[in-house]
Structures are given as C-alpha cells and as structure tokens.
Design a protein that fits this description.
The structure holds 3 protein chains of 3 kinds.
Chain A lengths: L2 H18 L6 H26 L8 H17 L4 H23 L4 H18 L12 E2 L6 H24 L1 H11 L1 H6 L4 H27 L1 E2 L1 H4 L2 H14 L6 H19 L4 H15 L4 H18 L7
Antiparallel strand pairs in A: 1-2
Helix pairs in contact in A: 2-6, 2-9, 2-11, 2-12, 3-4, 3-9, 4-9, 6-7, 6-9, 7-9, 11-12, 11-13
Chain B lengths: L2 H32 L6 H19 L3 H22 L8 H27 L12 E4 L2 E4 H23 L1 H11 L1 H6 L4 H23 L10 H15 L4 H21 L2 H18 L12
Antiparallel strand pairs in B: 1-2
Helix pairs in contact in B: 1-5, 1-6, 1-8, 1-9, 1-10, 2-3, 2-4, 2-8, 2-9, 3-8, 5-6, 5-8, 9-10, 9-11, 10-11
Chain C lengths: L2 E12 L2 E12 L3 E5 L6 H9 L6 E6 L2 E2 L5 H7 L1 E3 L12 H9 L6 H14 L15 H14 L4 E5 L7 H14 L6 E5 L3 H7 L2 E6 L2 E6 L1 H5 L2 H8 L6
Parallel strand pairs in C: 3-8, 3-9, 6-7, 7-8
Antiparallel strand pairs in C: 1-2, 1-4, 4-5, 9-10
Helix pairs in contact in C: 3-4, 3-5, 4-5
Classes of the chains: A mainly alpha, B mainly alpha, C alpha/beta.
Chain lengths: 317, 292, 242
C-alpha cells in the first residue's frame, strides 16, 4: 500500500468517524469534536487569505463575530430560523468583504495584519454602541438549540472549506494567487490582476468564519462581545494553520487535529497558564518548523524519493 | 462650548499625547532598523504598567522610582527576544516579514498569558498623585503632567543619543540604508539587538508612566500596539518628529472624541486614525509610505 | 511600417530627481532596439514606465497606436508587452513549470492548455528537466532563463529584456544572443533591451537608443552610434586637452 493510498484511507476513516460521533450519545465527546471541527474550519478560512494570498490577517474573527451576531439577533428579534440567519450572515460578510478587501488589501504586510487586528478589536468595542446587539450583556438565544444539528452544520462547512481549498490548490485562480503572494509586482507584469484576485480570496476567507460563527452562536445559545470576538479563538486559528503548514491543502487539518488535542490537554492541566503556553508554542513552532508540518513531511518524502532513485538496487518493494 | 472646557480637553489631550509619543518612538526605533513590526509592543507596555501598579500597591514604590528598573527590564526583554527568536529568521525578505510578524504575535500572547497568570483579569492602576494643580480655572492633573514631563525628557535623551553619539548615528544609518551601513563597517546584527533593546526599554518606560494615568488589564495590550502604530503611521514611518506630532494629535482626538462622543468611541480613535491615514495619506505627516 | 511602441516625450521625476527627461523614440514591428547608457541613465525607469509599474510624470506611451499610460500592469501585459527584470524575480516557492504557467495563462483559456504551453516554452529554454523543481533551487543562469521563459509564455508582441546578459559567461551570452535573434521566428515582433554588453548590443540591434542622465542623447544604427561623439563622451568622458 503506497503512502498516498494510506493517506486516503486514513482520511476516509477520519471522515466516517467524525460523521458518526453524534450517534455515540456522549455530550462531552460531541463537544470535543465540535470544537475541533470549528477551529479546523476557521484555520481553513484563515489559510486562504494568509496562507495562499500571503496577506496575514489577525482579524478574521471580525467575520466570525458578525456571523454569530446575525444568528443571535435574527433568532431573537426576527424569530427566523437560525441557519437562515447564519446564511444571511455569510452573504453579508461576502458583500462586506468586497469594499473592505479593496481598501485593506492596499496595505502591505504588517499594516494589513494590524489593520485587520484593529478591525476585530473595534468591532468588539463597537458592539456596545450598536443597537440590538445587547451590548456588553449580550443576547440570550431562544431555547431549542440542538448541538447535533450545529455539529453537522460545522462538519459540512469544514468539508466545503477543504474542497474549496483543494480547488484553490489546483486551479488557475490558485496559481495566480500564489504568484501574487510570492511577488506581487512580477505577477502584475505577467498578467495577473492582483487586486481582483486577492479580493476574491478575501471574500472566500470571510464567508467561512461567518458561517462557522453563526453555528457557534446557536451552539452556545449566548453571545457577548468578549467571548465572540475572542483573542483566544484568533490565536488558536492562527496557531493551527502555522503548525500544520500555511498555504497547503492539508496543513490546517493536521494542525487542527494536533492542536485540538494539545489545547484540550493544556486547558485541563494548566487552566491558568494555557494562553502563555500557546504563545510559547507558536514561537517554538515557528523556529523549529518555520513552514509547518506538512511541508516538512513533503520535503522528507521528496528526499527519500530522490535517494531511492539514486540507489535503484536497494528499491523498496 | 465654553472655552474653559475646550482648554481642559486640549490639555488632557496633549498630556496624553506625550506619553503616546513615547510608546510610538519605541516602535519606530525597532521598525526603523530591523523592519520588524513588534506586535508584542503593546503587551510590554501593559505588563510594565501592571507590574508598577502591583508594586505600588504592595511596596509603595512609585512608578517614578520604578522607572529606571522598567527601562533596564525592558532592555533586557528586548535583547532576549531579539537574540533568541529573531536572529533565527530566514533571510528571504518576505518569509522574514511573515515569520517575524507571527513570532511577535506569539510573543504577545505569551505575555498576555503571563500577565493573566500573574495579575489575573482585574483592572489595575496606580493611585499616585491623583490631585491636580489648578491654573486659571484649568486642571492640570499632577500625575499626567509628571508623566508628560518624563516622557518628553526620555524622548529628548533618545533624540540626543541618536544625534550625538557614535552608536546613535550608527543606528540611524542602519535604519536609513542597511547595505550602506554595512559597507561602512557597522555591525548590523548588533544594531538590530540594540534597536530592540532600546525599543522595548522605551515601551516599558511608557508603561510605567501610563500606569499613573489609566487602569489596565491584561487584555488591553493590543490596543496599545495599535495606538503606537497609529501614531507611527500618522506621523510618518521613520520620522521621529512626525511621531511626536502624530502622538499629540492622536491624544487630542482621543480626548475630544472621548468627551463629546463616549469613551468607547474615544478608544476606537487610534484604529480609525490608523485606517484613515493608511488609506488616504500613507506617507503620514512626514514620512515614507506604507502601501504598495 | 507602423510603430508598435511609441515613447513620446516621456519624463519621470522622483521628488527632485529627474530620472527621465523628455525621451522619445519608437520600436517598430520586427525590430530589435537596444537602450544603452551608463548606470543611472534612467533605463530601468523607462522600462518601469512602459510596463506600467508607475506612470510617467509627463509624456505618452503608445502601444499599437493606443495610449497605455495609466493602465494597470496586468492589462498592459494582456495588451502584449512582456518584461523581464534586471534582478530576477522568480516565484520562489512555485515550481519552474508553475512559474511559466502564470505567464501562459495570459493567452490560454484553460489551466491545462496553459500548462502545455508552459512545457513547450520550457523546452525552448532548455529547462524542461527542472519543470517540477522549486524555483528557489535554481542557479542564477537558470533563473535568468526562467525569467525569459515566463515572459515568452505570455506570447507578447513586444518583449522588454532588462539586462538579460548580466552575470552570464561568454558562451551563455552567445547562446542568449542567438536565442533572441530567434524570437522573431516565434512571433515576437520586437525586442527592447537594456544592455551594457557592447558586443551583444552591436551584433543584435537594428537600432540603438542612448540615454544619459535621463535624456536621449543619440539614436541610430550600431555603426552610427559607435562613432557618435556625444555617446563616446558619455561613456569615456571628453578627451583631456594637451
């Protein structure tokens, strides 16, 4: 069995196991898997604008929050179906991402990162003054939330995000995106419409967290600014993508699985200091594996392949 | 709108701006030489402020007395960060930028976690010199005046250092033209470490001074990074005079908006300014642009 | 013969520095024109203006009769102007094939067609054996060929080559010379070049334009330029009075 087939088999098993978790009836396991799915999905969304487009954003939480509040306000004020509200949140964020992208993506590097960070922070503060948001006290969502439904919603979004990333990875759009990540000016003189390409990536990377945020609100049944526009969520998202490998198809998945386990272990063992350990972990990871696990593994496999080629008489059966 | 009120707001704004300036100068020094954006900058300010608040409460040591320690501690922190982490950065310019952003991002969360672990989530401040001088029916809060004076003093010393000493000039050379400086025999690696030491030292100092003006909790760190950044961008990247002017303007903006709007809008001002400047006047008041 | 590219009174200043000062010349279909001049003469600035990296402060640039000033770089690329950079700018983390495919996407409608076209171009520059290697692993010479290949894949009508000989040894220079002469055979109408290497310039150019301190000081055939007094003065200085 080749490594590739092994990988696919593992993926299939993972898919099935994840799909069947709710049937176990165990609320704790469900919530554990749900959180993993949520963060992995967020990592995929982040990966599009930061990994593939090369515009590091520290404010994707903005869209997550908007999605959550769409569901909170929609279900309480308008008595609409939560998933309709979540979809509306997704559409809104997609539309919002257009002018926002055109404006923000003119900023380079650190300025874009900080701009997005500030956006998330501002929205958190602004929630106090925007009507209907319940301010700092938040909103209690109507009862009747079913965790299993949210679980499958989140699972579906994650799968879609993975498929979307797979498409980006293999398409002309993705190639142009990666080209502009490497060298925006050269890409321009080679015919890439850098502005429109990166705005499109920005839109895609806004929809994913928006939809996931909608589900999150329904899951928690309570929203308030600091738990929704949470720095911890942003941090974990970024950490997962970095650990697994930014700009790769499977990076966020690998990072998501590993990081969830680490996070769970840390929160229980070191409830006071897990944020500190996380920060330290990100730093250590960046130094040890600057490009993440998936590229490191790919490099290792490539080296094995080339040394195997050089010694055909020792070929593995 | 009484004149007295306006004057009061102006005074408050300027006093606040003075300390903002100090925070921004620290960031400017680091960015100028290393082209690294220190996302942990605000957290260093907060950590120092929280430490000063606690130290004042426990041991009655005022932030002024703690200032030299803050300066030293900040410098050490800066050296540690630069030597252990940032020296391992890849040489390729773009990876360098991303990796350094992510590393300082990680460091900032480490510091947030550290602050939370040590100080818990409470807001703390230093209740020192809480009264004010009164001059012509305008209040001059003593703590603010003191902080402002010391901030200007430290900024002045920094300016002198950069202008008149050999090391200071080497630092400026490195920030203007890295290769040129190299060719002149300036040890770039040392300059990087020095700039980080200076930058973090000044950040710590501004934290000590700010502790007398505001209350803080561990989560407000990123706000200060943004404030420092807004000032740098407003004044123009690489311009020290611009940073001071920008800081004063921002201080005024926060003061006025905070009063006439509400405190929330006031605290959003740095971000608003940041975005507006970057989008409409990227070179700031006197500096080099930040966009493509 | 209508001019393919017309540079009409182009000036460009950066603050107080006048990098280009009222430069005018044209490149016709089927021509190879070399722009030469001492360092700092404004050659790369000229190329940047033509390819749309920044606009001229004054003057016009016309391609196929239409003004391209103010057009974004990617539209100028689509209009048919390709360029290479003096300091090569490969897409470092992309493979060699992917690098060239980006260029090919200008003209090909599908990704697979673009990849096929890219493979063909790689054959032309003899980089096929490195198709799946990351561009970061390439030597400078290979990177130069990649740079040219990328621009070629765009099927440009006009190719701007910026110091494409820099860093090449004499054998490689000769190969590149022959290669550029062949470009006309594969449908590239004209080539604009910037070069210091006089041997190459003299052999290859139909016409030469000489810049010095941002001004055009001479234009003509290689023979005319070689004996032009102002050109000689610009490169070698004026003779010392005895």
């Amino acid at each position: 069995m080749t490594l590739r087939n092994l990988g696919f088999a593992a993926l299939a098993v993972l898919f099935l196991a994840t799909a069947l978790v709710p049937l176990s009836g165990n609320g704790y396991i469900l919530s554990l898997f749900y959180i993993s799915l949520l963060f992995t999905g967020l990592a995929y969304g982040w990966n599009i604008i930061s990994g593939y487009a090369g515009y590091l954003s520290f404010g994707q939480i903005t869209f997550f929050g908007i999605g959550a509040y769409f569901v909170a306000i929609g279900t309480t004020q308008f008595h609409a179906q939560w998933w309709l509200c979540a979809l509306a949140g997704g559409v809104f964020c997609a539309l919002l991402a257009v002018p926002m992208g055109y404006l923000m993506l003119r900023l380079q590097g650190a300025f874009f990162a900080l701009g997005m960070l500030g956006l998330g922070q501002s929205l958190r503060i602004a929630t106090d003054v925007i009507p209907y948001t319940g301010g700092a006290e938040g909103i209690y969502l109507p009862p009747g939330a079913n965790a299993v439904v949210v679980y499958y919603w989140t699972f579906a979004i994650l799968v879609l995000a993975i498929l979307l990333t797979a498409w980006i990875d293999r398409s002309a759009f993705g190639l142009r995106l990666r080209a502009l990540r490497e060298d925006e000016r050269a890409a321009g003189t080679l015919g890439v419409d850098t502005t429109s390409t990166k705005v499109r990536a920005f839109i895609l990377s806004a929809i994913v967290p928006a939809l996931l945020g909608g589900g999150y609100a329904w899951y928690l049944t309570y929203v308030e600014p600091s738990s929704i526009y949470s720095t911890e969520i942003e941090l974990q998202t970024v950490a997962m993508a970095i650990l697994g490998g930014m700009g790769t198809l499977w990076g966020p998945l690998v990072g998501g699985i590993l990081m969830s386990q680490i996070s769970e272990a840390l929160s229980t063992k070191f409830p006071q200091t897990h944020l500190m350990i996380f920060g330290a972990l990100i730093v250590v990871l960046l130094i040890a594996l600057p490009r993440g696990i998936v590229p490191a593994v790919n490099d290792w496999l490539a080296r094995r392949k080339s040394s195997a080629k050089a010694r055909p008489q020792e070929a593995v059966t | 709108m009484q004149l007295g009120l306006v004057v009061q707001l102006v005074i408050n704004g300027l006093l606040l701006g003075g300390v903002f300036a100090l925070a921004a100068l620290g960031l400017n020094v680091i960015f100028g030489v290393t082209r690294i954006v220190n996302l942990a900058h605000g957290q260093i300010i907060i950590l120092t402020a929280l430490t000063c608040a606690t130290v004042f409460q426990r041991f009655n040591i005022t932030p002024i007395e703690a200032l030299p320690v803050a300066l030293l501690g900040g410098a050490i922190l800066g050296i540690v960060i630069e030597r252990t982490l940032l020296q391992r950065l890849p040489e390729h310019a773009q990876s360098r930028e991303w990796t350094s952003l992510l590393i300082t991002f990680g460091v900032s969360y480490f510091l947030i976690g550290l602050s939370l672990a040590i100080f818990s989530g409470d807001f703390r401040s230093v209740a020192y010199l809480t009264d004010s001088w009164r001059l012509a029916s305008v209040d001059f809060p003593k703590a603010q005046v003191l902080a402002f004076t010391l901030a200007i003093l430290i900024a002045g010393v920094l300016g002198l250092f950069l202008r008149s000493t050999k090391v200071g000039r080497a630092l400026r050379a490195a920030s203007q033209n890295l290769d040129g400086a190299r060719v002149c025999g300036i040890d770039i690696s040392r300059m990087r470490t020095l700039s980080f030491a200076l930058g973090c030292s000044i950040a710590a100092a501004s934290g000590a001074l700010l502790s007398m003006i505001y209350a803080y909790n561990p989560d407000t760190g990123s706000q200060f990074t943004l404030i420092a950044f807004s000032v740098v961008v407003l004044g123009g990247l690489g311009s020290y005079a611009g940073a001071i002017v920008g800081a004063l303007l921002l201080g005024l903006a926060v003061s006025f908006v905070g009063f006439y709007g509400n405190t929330h809008l006031g605290s959003m001002m740095p971000y608003v300014v940041f975005i507006l400047v970057l989008l409409f006047r990227p070179s700031g008041i006197l500096g080099k642009p930040a966009t493509t | 013969m209508s001019a393919l590219l017309e540079i009409d009174g182009v000036s460009r200043s950066f603050g107080g520095l006048r990098a280009l000062n009222d430069v005018s010349f044209s490149v016709g279909e089927g021509e190879i024109v070399c722009v030469i001049g001492p360092n700092g003469a404004g050659k790369t600035t000229l190329f940047n203006v033509i390819s749309g990296v920044f606009p001229p402060s004054a003057g016009d640039v016309r391609f196929n009769g239409k003004s391209i000033v103010g057009m974004p770089t990617h539209r100028i690329a689509h209009a048919g102007i390709g360029r290479t950079y003096q300091i090569v700018r490969p897409f470092v983390r992309l493979t060699v094939l992917e690098n060239v495919t980006v260029g090919a996407l200008v003209h090909e409608s599908s990704y697979s067609a673009a990849r096929r076209k890219a493979a063909e171009v790689l054959d032309l520059v003899r980089l096929s054996h490195l198709a799946d290697t990351q561009a970061s692993s390439l030597t400078l010479t290979q990177r130069k060929r990649l740079e040219v290949a990328r621009a070629l894949a765009m099927r440009p009508k006009l190719l701007l080559l910026d110091e494409v000989m820099a860093g090449l040894n004499p054998t490689e220079v000769d190969a590149m010379c022959a290669f550029i002469l062949d470009l006309r055979k594969i449908g590239i109408s004209a080539v604009g070049g910037i070069e210091h290497l006089m041997r190459f310039v003299m052999n290859i150019s139909d016409r030469i334009v000489v810049l010095d301190f941002g001004r055009k000081i001479a234009e003509g055939t290689p023979k005319e330029i070689a004996t032009h007094p102002e050109v000689i003065a610009a490169y070698f200085g004026t003779p010392i009075e005895t």
